[in-house]
Amino acid sequence: MDEFASIRHWTSGRQSESWQRERGVRLGIGDDAALIDPAAPIAGVGSPYEYIMAMDTMVETVHFNEVTMSYEDIGYKALAANVSDIAAMGGVPLQALISVSVPRQLGPEPMRRLYDGLYACAEQYGVAIIGGDTTSSPQHLVVAVTVTGAVEAGQALRRSGARPGDAVVLTGPVGMSAAGLHFLLAQRERGADALAGERVGQLVQAHRRPSPSVRAGRLLLARGTCHSLNDVSDGLASEAWEIAEASGLVVTLKEQQLPRSGSMAAYAGAAGIDPLEWMLYGGEDYVLLGTIEQNDAEAAQAAFHKEGLPFYIIGETSAGDPAVELLRSTDRGDLRQPLAKRGYNHFE
């Protein structure tokens, strides 16, 4: 099957022209490039609006292998990571370009499964797949995704807007993806029955099929009191440092207020690992970390809970040179522990 037949095999019949037209697409897959109507009305986004663009790449042996991810999972997560970046700006995802570099020995069917996952994520978050590129790869599979989104003009939520005295908030638990990855790798090392009996299903799901917080981002934008926002891709501590440095202040996280999944904590105990390590430095949770006016934090939490969405108030910001610290309660009183500026880094 040649390149063009492969593309048709992977993409044909997935999304109707009328469905894509509602997302601003005038010409999708099948020509030299796609055409987008920059003035098309976007459901749920006020005019005038600005476009958001984000790109992520997943590389075999770096982001996944045959043990940690199925081909469907690879496709789903590759798109979800980009959707999360749009959510972190308070935006709505619209269109996606997919670039794949495929080892010759892989064959068309695994890639068909990968596109099954891509389109499953696209359907869930209303993303039109409009084109991309396909090349061969000498050894490993590479999937690169570019996503466009939209947000009301001048209202995008950025890392640099935090103010001293803000509450630090989080839209979901952290550490679950890292725990799921640990289980999958331990399973490979010790056999299929590794740590059998532990409740790890939702941890594995968190790693393989993350849920970008698009609705949460839109709710925070609409409140008008959210000053900064970031998605937790490289770890909670790393993302807090990004806000601290971009905004020029101190971010204090309160250990007792960090959301801790029961299944993650139970698995960490069985594995002999401090769950805080996964929570602070694990990454790939794709929840949102941000700052909001202190006097609106509890009202925002109530509004989220009314929508059935998680929302945690986990700290505060203060004036000072950029820093991130963890406030821990001990027998000797509160202890402020500086948090290292680390998380996943491709070049370390």
From TrEMBL:
| Residues noted as binding Mg(2+) 2 in the record, renumbered to the chain | 56, 85
* EC number(s) stated in the UniProt entry for this protein: 2.7.4.16
Keywords of the record:
ATP-binding, Kinase, Magnesium, Metal-binding, Nucleotide-binding, Thiamine biosynthesis, Transferase
Q: Does the keyword Transferase apply?
A: yes
Q: Which Pfam families match?
A: AIRS, AIRS_C
Q: Which positions does UniProt annotate for ATP binding? A: 115, 132-133, 159, 233
Tell me which Gene Ontology terms the entry assigns under biological process. Answer: thiamine biosynthetic process; thiamine diphosphate biosynthetic process
Q: Which residues bind substrate?
A: 63, 284, 344
Gene3D superfamilies associated with the record: PurM-like C-terminal domain, PurM-like, N-terminal domain
The entry marks the following residues as binding Mg(2+) 4, namely 32, 85
Domain PurM-like N-terminal: start-end pairs: 30-151
- Reactions the enzyme catalyzes: thiamine phosphate + ATP = thiamine diphosphate + ADP
Kindly list the positions annotated as binding Mg(2+) 3: 32, 85, 231
What is the annotated role of this protein in its UniProt record? Catalyzes the ATP-dependent phosphorylation of thiamine-monophosphate (TMP) to form thiamine-pyrophosphate (TPP), the active form of vitamin B1.
The identity of this protein, by name, is Thiamine-monophosphate kinase
Organism expressing this protein natively: Paenibacillus catalpae
